[in-house]
């Protein structure tokens, strides 16, 4: 009998993680509060009042970025920011980072120095320290960052905890990073077709390109909550796309939810890109990913504590039997697919087009 061979696209990223988790998931530790399953793991310190959170996230050439379109300094900044975002998604402050780089031969010392200038800028911005890493040769540029953060035991927030009646809220605006990616891919194609003398005018797309290449972790948002005494009941960051993250919150909280598509905050610049490609901007906002905004469950009585310009109410949590729904701008209520960016696809395509609403 030959060994079973299940292609990874058959189970997908989350299915694979579940299969692997069953092999190691029963390794127990009395100080562990959250293991595999949230934006970061959480463990108790001996003082019993403080917890540490720890998270790791990779950026791989050809999967997370295109070297042609990505300045090295931006890449260094993004590698730190996306990890800080997972720490922030536990309502914790980032403290220390390590970084592993797998470097192909065609990169120079100067390119890696530029990358590290970006790393440094992000560490300064988020007030954290780079304390180590590892360096190896690789066939493609591979970056993996680990960040340790800190929170008070009674302040840490999880994907679980939302209750029916809580408001579904999001910081900032959505769909911009996907719009930026669309423009960058379009310009890469134009460069290929028209040759190296082609001079693209990217000025009108500055905002969306920045959303893609230089995302910020919303540390400012959780600090503002602390200053105002706001305490959401559940929290996640938007890395794979709004729809996918709403499903995570609902599954972990044993809730359903409804998202009102017309209330999802979208920047004018993002709308203009969707128009340029004759595509539906709600699709960008629901399924685009990489916006690194915070999605949270807010008890309605806390609404008045927040600055109304700093977030949007985009839906409501419901009892679990209602499932996860979206009300389209035309008013129809339909199931919201948990679609978002998919790492493993049967067709092995490099483009990851979201479904249409
Ligand atoms: N190969 C793996 N082995 C063990 N745990 C894993 C592995 N891959 C992911 N996980 C864990 O699974 C959970 C979900 O991971 P996922 O990457 O979806 O979350 P995330 O870090 O918030 O997302 P993103 O990578 O988009 O930032 C996390 O707790 C993560 O640590
Ligand atoms: C060249 C190129 N192709 C595709 C994308 C889009 N993309 C890659 S990973 C990801 C989700 C988050 O990943 P993870 O869950 O691993 O953190 C998204 C939306 C990109 N940015 N660049
Ligand atoms: Mg996350």
UniProtKB/TrEMBL annotation:
It catalyses: thiamine phosphate + ATP = thiamine diphosphate + ADP. Mg(2+) 2 binds at residues 57, 86. Substrate binds at residues 64, 290, 341. Its EC number is 2.7.4.16. It is an enzyme of class 2 (transferase). Mg(2+) 1 binds at residues 56-57, 134. This is Thiamine-monophosphate kinase.
């Amino acid at each position: 009998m030959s060994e079973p061979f299940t292609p990874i696209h058959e189970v997908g990223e989350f299915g694979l993680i579940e299969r692997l988790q069953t092999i190691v998931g029963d390794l127990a530790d009395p100080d562990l509060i959250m293991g595999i399953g949230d934006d970061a793991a959480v463990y108790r310190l001996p003082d019993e009042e403080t917890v540490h959170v720890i998270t790791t996230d990779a950026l791989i050439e050809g999967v997370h970025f295109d070297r042609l379109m990505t300045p090295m300094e931006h890449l260094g900044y993004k590698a730190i920011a996306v990890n800080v975002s997972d720490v922030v998604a536990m309502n914790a402050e980032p403290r220390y980072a390590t970084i592993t780089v797998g470097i192909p031969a065609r990169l120079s010392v100067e390119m890696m120095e530029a990358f590290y200038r970006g790393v440094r800028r992000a560490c300064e911005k988020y007030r954290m320290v780079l304390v180590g890493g590892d360096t190896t040769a690789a066939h493609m540029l591979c970056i993996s960052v680990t960040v340790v953060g800190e929170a008070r035991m009674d302040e840490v927030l999880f994907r679980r905890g939302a209750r029916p009646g809580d408001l579904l809220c999001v910081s900032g605006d959505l769909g911009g990073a996907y719009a930026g990616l669309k423009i960058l891919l379009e310009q890469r194609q134009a460069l290929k077709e028209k040759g190296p003398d082609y001079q693209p005018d990217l000025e009108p797309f500055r905002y969306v390109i920045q959303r893609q290449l230089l995302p910020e972790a919303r540390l400012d948002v959780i600090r503002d909550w602390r200053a105002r005494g706001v305490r959401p009941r559940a929290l996640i960051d938007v890395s794979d796309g709004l729809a996918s993250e709403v499903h995570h919150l609902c599954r972990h909280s044993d809730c359903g939810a409804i998202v009102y598509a017309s209330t999802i905050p979208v920047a004018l610049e993002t709308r203009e890109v969707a128009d340029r490609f004759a595509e539906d901007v709600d699709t960008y906002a629901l399924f685009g990913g990489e916006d690194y905004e915070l999605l949270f469950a807010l008890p309605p009585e806390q609404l008045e504590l927040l600055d109304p310009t700093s977030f949007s109410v985009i839906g409501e949590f419901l009892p679990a039997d209602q499932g996860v729904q979206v009300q389209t701008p035309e008013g129809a209520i339909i199931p919201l697919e948990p679609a978002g960016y998919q790492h493993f696809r049967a067709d092995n395509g490099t483009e990851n087009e979201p479904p249409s609403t």
